[in-house]
Design a protein that fits this description.
Shape: elongated
Number of domains: 3
Distance between the termini: 87 Å
Number of strands: 0
Order of helices and strands: HHHHHHHHHHHHHH
Amino acid sequence: MKKILLATIIASVSLTGCKTIESVQKDLGSITSGLTGDEATPEQVQLAYEKAEQAFQEALTAYNLIDSEALADFDTEKVYEAKEVWQVLESEFAELRLSPGHALDSASLFSSDTVADEIMEQSQQVIILVEGATVSKERITAVLKPVREEFAVLTQIDAKIHFEKRYSTLNEQHQELKQLLIDGKEAQVEQYVPQLLEQLTALEKDAVVQFYFSEYIHKIYKLANSDKASVFPAVYRDVKIHLEQGQVYAQQNYREYDGIKLKADLVAHQIARINSLYSEYTNLKTALDDKEIENELLKFENELAELTEKVGLGDLRNLTFSEQLNKVKEKL
């Protein structure tokens, strides 16, 4: 079974028509059986070197898949082992390349393998490990595709920053599922995926609200502790109502980013509105009775709003009265 798997692996990374490393080793073994470096003919030594070189090139092709396929993101253990073997293989083949005549020399005092044998065996190991990591990637991308897509969305809306603990807990579960898939336990993972997706979706909803409305929530907290809320309670209620409506909309339509942005802009508009009104209030405070200030200002604000709507400028209540009048003048 191992030989069949190996042949499949090598065939997937070899040039068309190339023999597998296993068959190369058999050919080489039949040619050099019982020979030492001193006993072999120059032709046999050259053949051994060529077979080792072929095996090395096939291993190199497989090794390059680690980066091109981002295999370390899916099976770090096999990738780590492949890199460890590759370091030794690359070094030993570099030495052999400088002295091809040593291809049939003994690899060590304690081994009957030749230098060429050892290079081919190490090449086998690299290919098998890379193929194993590739299988892990295929399982993970197939079974955990919706989970991985959800994490990609969470990254875009800064969930890891705003909800660090929840994100970390769910990511740990994600990594555990990946390991189960590496171990070949697809059925077990498939049963748990819906539960994880439910938790990820709940986090996404909260993260969307935080991403689009956190700035305005902070500003509204400041408004609540300022004179603006007490001087303009009706306007302050409008601010809070728009915030609540925006948050509800975001929770219910958490992927409708354009719509959520419009709701957030409405909240910003209302905050700017109360700030503008308060600016007018401070300017007129000395001339009006404090108890009548809101009614008087709102009356003037409504009259001015009717004017801006009539001339086609829309709702400009987020601007000061002076700024609104200047806009009307520019329009006329």
